[in-house]
Design a protein that fits this description.
- This protein has helices spanning 11-15, 24-37, 49-55, 88-99, 130-136, 164-178, 201-212, 229-234, 246-249, 263-271, and strands at 6-9, 40-44, 64-67, 72-74, 80-83, 107-113, 117-120, 141-143, 155-161, 182-188, 191-196, 219-223, 237-240.
- It is α/β, with parallel strands linked by helices.
- The chain has 2 domains: 6-83 and 199-271, Rossmann fold (3-Layer(aba) Sandwich); 88-196, 2-Layer Sandwich (Hypothetical Protein, Haloacid Dehalogenase-like Hydrolase, Chain: A, domain 2), CATH 3.30.1240.10.
- The longest helix has 15 residues, at 164-178.
- It starts with 5 loop residues before the first strand and ends with a helix.
- It comes from Weissella muntiaci.
- Keywords: Hydrolase.
- It holds the Pfam family Hydrolase_3.
């Protein structure tokens, strides 16, 4: 696998252990070896850039970004290469569409923007996972209507959480009726992300592949959830975590260990003979 030039990994359930930690010593070793070998590490996640930078503060500048499930792509030098975003008409449509659903929200709809993230006051404190959402969005702003989102804000993703049965039915409905306008995906655990059509981790990685003038035959990817499916299909060397989604486990090779035992790091070290 000497030809591998880019390695991309999901975070939750993949790179992170159950405490949302990573073996920093091993990660630093891999990044140093990658620098020596002209390889690139990519964080490919549903999280936004401020959260990724806070997770990996000691390593900022040493990895590239495919974030918000592919809606934004940055180089390690912090250059924005690509961004999908909603227009106001799309936001109005999605707000009305989701508001009409009789869901038992686990986390209400968060409008994830470039500058800030927003939630309607009507959904504040709703759901058993609301407090968990504040870990990902510590500066979440609560608004009366989406008209209060500032004019200079750009919304790139809607994210929320539902019971699993509702996730499945919503994904079927939106994929059947609105796939030309929106891309809906899940990382599991009831979480749902909606982005503009064309935004996914694979399309984000293709931007980086073109930027660095390499091909998918030189790409290795790691994931555990269905929001990783496209990038696993894209790569010549895909790996699913042993703790991952059953469909993925039946479709792709497995990483050498699960996320609680440095599975991504050890697979990289072993397969690339670092």
């Amino acid at each position: 696998m000497e030809n591998v030039k880019i390695v991309a990994t999901d975070l939750d359930g993949t790179f992170f252990d159950s405490q949302r930690q990573v073996n920093q010593e091993k990660f630093a070793y891999i990044l140093t070896r990658f620098d020596e070998q002209n390889r690139h590490m990519v964080i490919a996640t549903g999280n936004d850039k401020p959260r990724v930078d806070s997770f990996f503060e000691p390593f900022v500048g040493r990895f590239d970004y495919v974030i918000n499930n592919g809606a934004q792509v940055f180089t390690r030098e912090q250059t924005l290469l690509n961004m999908f975003h909603f227009n106001h008409a799309q936001l109005r449509f999605l707000t009305k569409y989701l508001d009409a659903k009789d869901y038992q929200w686990r986390i209400g709809v968060i409008y994830n923007g470039v500058n800030d993230s927003y939630m309607l006051k009507a959904q504040q404190n709703q759901g058993d996972l609301y407090e968990d959402s504040l870990w990902y969005f510590p500066n979440l702003k609560h608004i009366q209507t989406i008209d209060e989102i500032p004019d200079n804000e750009t919304i790139i993703k809607l994210t929320f959480a539902l019971p699993l049965a509702d996730v499945q039915s919503l994904m079927r409905e939106m994929t059947t009726n609105y796939s030309d306008k929106f891309h809906i995906t899940t990382s599991g655990y009831g979480s749902v992300d909606i982005m503009p059509a064309g935004a996914n981790k694979a399309s984000g990685l293709e931007v980086l592949l073109n930027h660095y003038q390499v091909t998918a035959s030189q790409l290795m990817t790691f994931g555990d959830g269905l929001n990783d499916l496209e990038m696993l299909n894209l790569a010549k060397y895909p790996y699913v975590m042993p703790n991952g989604d059953e469909f993925l486990l039946n479709s792709f090779p497995h990483a050498h260990a699960n996320n609680d035992h440095d599975g991504v790091l050890d697979t990289i070290i072993n397969t690339l003979q670092l």
